[in-house]
Design goal:
The protein has 297 residues and is mainly beta. The chain folds into two domains: 1-33; 38-290, Porin (Beta Barrel), CATH 2.40.160. The chain is 13% helix and 44% strand. A hairpin with a 4-residue loop joins β4 (99-106) and β5 (111-121). The longest helix is centred in the N-terminal third of the chain and has 32 residues, at 2-33.
Amino acid sequence: MKKHCLLFSLLFTPLFFLSAQEGDLLSLIDEEERTEYVTAAFKTNRVIHGHSIENTAGGVLDVKIAHRFGRLNTGFFEFYGLDNAMARIGADYGITDQLTVGLGRNGFLNTFDGFLKYKFLRQSTGKKNMPVSAALLGTLEFRATKENPDPEGQASSRFAYTYQLLVGRKFSQAFSLQLMPTLVHRNLVDFNEQNDVFAIGLGARQKITKRVALTLEYYYVPGDQLPSDDINRYYNSLAIGFDIETGGHVFQLHFTNSTSMIHRGFITETTGNWADGDIHFGFNIARVFTIDKPEIK
């Protein structure tokens, strides 16, 4: 009996080793062929004012409510800006995971805005190695004030457009960074302003805890594209804030020198200066609803 057991061990032990080695080799091959996509570089599809490289998932509706209050340096009698508020309400919808559309209404110049964003690159490792995520954004803004800003009454004067390339990378589980080359075109401007304004945006996110992150957004307008005289003086937009995730909501609390929540406004028409205390407290609230569940294949 012992001889039979010994013979059995001698015959089948090498097979067990070969089987284990084959499983390890298959596992290594599978890992090399698998693509791992990076997720949640930013918690929402906005950094603060502008868009992030994230898209609303296909079949998901993202309802957004945003406020920008008055300047903190107005003092106690205006309750440090809380007596004044500018609001925007809007909704973004994911047609697919790569394509998002959105509409909104902004209190700044009674503006309606819409956008289309297409994410054509997605950061990944493994079989498909892509170091960055990238998206194209186009926006349309319509000034709906009762009086037409154009003395000649042309409806086209109410429109402005923004074209933006978003390129970002999640460097670690805690830190993400993106660049935003931007072109803003305004059909109607004052005599001393340019219709086309080029800007470079920077967005960053640093995770602090599991549900809280520090965010920063800055738009630099190079050269003398914006007026800088004593009557019309514009500044680069700077915003610093916190993202707080609570279940299906994301709260974004921030301080900024811009009141507008559309690209034309915060990139080309920011009148507040951080150095003078022209700082506004604001917040964004995002709530997502699944409208169309994808089929599981």
